[in-house]
């Protein structure tokens, strides 16, 4: 009830103020104050680039304590690694610097796209920190060690300030809050099963709810080993639930009553009773194995001492393997390397004085947003934020800084712009652009006295900085286009690749469990992206079911092939069936013809599974192209 009242207050405030979000305004204001404080502390310490400390505050601050601690750690580690690489690169010739930087940022971008949560940020930061050190030190390699030390000191200053302020004022995240929606959703699914009401529309809606919970899990487990265990336990529950939405068996009357009672227990929060009830369904022919796993997961959730990875093996619960977009990661790494190499070579050939700033900005844009669902969309907002920052920096430098008598006064003159930027953070229309407003304003604001204003040079430098998002937009749109549809296709390709791998060799029981866990998580990701392309929703559900049906048929054939009791003739038939299943993408018509032929001559005991394979390939042949 308290959360509901808080939500209503936030909604009222947003409506009353015309789109301003109260919690976001509060968080942004404390971050802006921390930024101003970091500027003063870094200047008082005699650091040459105090504005970098302010940038670190904005980059490290998070609304929840666990996220704050974890991101601060990754920011520091990523900065140290990137700074060391940058110190090495700046010693090389311009050509080797550009090539080395392209390879390093490409590698870091590839690595970040294989990570989940805030770990990805550490890899990205390692990439563009090297760019920041090596490019800003170009032409003065003798000063690079001083620049690197200054960079690390300012980052550490910003991280410490952000951590102290955030730790005192932010609330701790609790992975336990995600457990309740998962249990409530399981209760809804069981009720649908009991009422025989799980049609395609209902299954699609429930899968999307599962995907939304999964999407929110990482942020609640950040910064805490205990929180991570809770996240894994909750994800284990989600993955155990997915099969109930891909297949709905026909239940007996007494089983439906058990499902209804278990659903009621879950809605009351009585996990122990639900677990005891579901044990009665462990012998249901078509879904017994699924219910055994759900019971095991509920046992782990209900028993605090069992909430660890050891529970996997003891209870046979679903593993917590997650989807990794290897295709998207490879494309992101190649895109980043190509972009920096192309622009870097153009900079060397043209000798453009501000080319280093373009390359620096591009290294950030092409790596930070590579893991976003739709970088092309967000880059437009980034460009707007950077343009506003460039105008604010021009106003500050041309109108105010000439009157400053010291660097401290210059820093004080920057603060009204920083505090005014909080309004961008707090409004629903501009919050996406707000971070880049602060970052670019600080990047362009290197305090020094005596200050001689040069409008032409300032405009020239501002243009160089804001050209980076425009270049990144072109790269995201043209080089391995990154959008929701492409990410949806990547998940589908990974599921089909896993299916093909199943046909190559017989999997052990542990390997099958791992494949199944990863497949169920990929189904959630597939449904998540398909839901954003509403026309693909039902196709995604049908495709997921068909892949699971064909995969299970292949696994059943392999078990029979390796069973000494299976007659030799049946083994040959099933081995040919596995081969046809593995080649269906190359020639679906031939695979279907082959399986149908085998089904005619197969023993009666294998005809149902062969028919499952035929039905699945027929469905996939018409759906995988979408």
From TrEMBL:
Alphabetized UniProt keyword annotations: Membrane, Transmembrane, Transmembrane helix
Cleaved signal peptide residues: none
Annotated protein name in UniProt: FUSC family protein
Coiled coil regions, renumbered to chain: none
Lineage top rank: taxon: Bacteria
Segments crossing the lipid bilayer: 27-46, 73-106, 118-139, 151-169, 338-366, 378-400, 412-439, 459-479
Keyword Transmembrane helix annotated: yes
């Amino acid at each position: 009830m308290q959360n509901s009242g808080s939500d209503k207050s936030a909604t009222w405030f947003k409506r009353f103020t015309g789109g301003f979000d109260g919690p976001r305004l509060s968080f942004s204001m404390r971050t802006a104050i921390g930024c101003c404080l970091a500027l003063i502390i870094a200047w008082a310490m005699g650091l040459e680039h105090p504005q970098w400390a302010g940038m670190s505050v904005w980059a490290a601050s998070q609304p929840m304590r666990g996220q704050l601690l974890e991101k601060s750690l990754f920011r520091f580690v990523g900065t140290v690694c990137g700074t060391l690489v940058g110190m090495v690169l700046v010693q090389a010739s311009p050509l080797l610097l550009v090539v080395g930087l392209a390879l390093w940022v490409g590698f870091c971008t590839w690595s970040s796209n294989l990570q989940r949560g805030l770990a990805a940020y550490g890899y990205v930061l390692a990439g563009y920190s090297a760019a920041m050190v090596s490019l800003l030190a170009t032409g003065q390699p003798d000063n690079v060690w001083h620049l690197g030390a200054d960079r690390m000191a300012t980052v550490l200053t910003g991280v410490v300030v952000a951590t102290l302020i955030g730790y005192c004022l932010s609330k701790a995240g609790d992975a336990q809050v995600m457990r309740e929606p998962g249990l409530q959703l399981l209760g809804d699914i069981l009720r649908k099963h009991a009422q025989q009401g799980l049609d395609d529309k209902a299954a699609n809606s429930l899968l999307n709810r599962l995907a939304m919970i999964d999407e929110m899990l990482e942020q609640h487990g950040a910064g805490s080993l205990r929180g991570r265990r809770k996240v894994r336990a909750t994800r284990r529950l989600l993955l155990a639930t997915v099969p109930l939405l891909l297949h709905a068996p026909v239940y007996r009357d007494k089983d439906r009553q058990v499902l209804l009672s278990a659903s009621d227990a879950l809605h009351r929060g009585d996990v122990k009773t639900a677990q005891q009830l579901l044990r009665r369904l462990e012998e249901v022919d078509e879904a017994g194995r699924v219910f055994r796993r759900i019971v095991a997961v509920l046992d782990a959730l209900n028993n605090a001492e069992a909430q660890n990875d050891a529970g996997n093996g003891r209870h046979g619960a679903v593993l917590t393997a997650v989807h990794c977009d290897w295709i998207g990661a490879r494309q992101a790494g190649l895109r980043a390397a190509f972009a920096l190499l192309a622009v870097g070579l153009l900079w060397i050939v043209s000798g453009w004085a501000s080319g280093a700033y373009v390359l620096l900005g591009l290294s950030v844009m092409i790596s930070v947003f590579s893991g976003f669902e739709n970088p092309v969309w967000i880059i437009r907002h980034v460009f707007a934020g950077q343009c506003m920052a460039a105008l604010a920096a021009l106003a500050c430098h041309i109108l105010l800084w000439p009157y400053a008598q010291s660097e401290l006064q210059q820093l004080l003159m920057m603060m009204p712009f920083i505090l005014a930027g909080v309004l961008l953070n707090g409004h629903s229309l501009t919050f996406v652009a707000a971070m880049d407003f602060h970052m670019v304003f600080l990047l362009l604001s290197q305090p020094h006295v005596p200050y001689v204003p040069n409008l032409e040079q300032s405009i020239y430098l501002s243009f160089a900085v804001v050209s980076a998002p425009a270049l990144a937009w072109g790269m995201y749109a043209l080089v391995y286009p990154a959008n929701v549809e492409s990410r949806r296709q990547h998940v589908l390709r990974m599921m089909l690749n896993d299916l093909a791998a199943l046909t190559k060799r017989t999997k052990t029981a542990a390997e099958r469990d791992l494949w199944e866990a990863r497949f169920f998580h990929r189904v959630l990701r597939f449904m998540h992206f398909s839901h954003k392309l509403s026309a693909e929703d039902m196709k995604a559900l049908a495709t997921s079911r068909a892949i699971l049906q064909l995969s299970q048929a292949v696994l059943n054939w392999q078990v029979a092939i390796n069973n000494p009791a299976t007659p030799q003739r049946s083994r040959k038939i099933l081995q040919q069936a596995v081969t046809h299943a593995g080649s269906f993408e190359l020639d679906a018509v031939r695979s279907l013809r082959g399986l149908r032929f085998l089904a005619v001559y197969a023993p009666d005991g294998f005809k149902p599974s062969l028919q499952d394979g035929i039905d699945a390939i027929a469905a996939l042949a018409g759906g995988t192209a979408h």
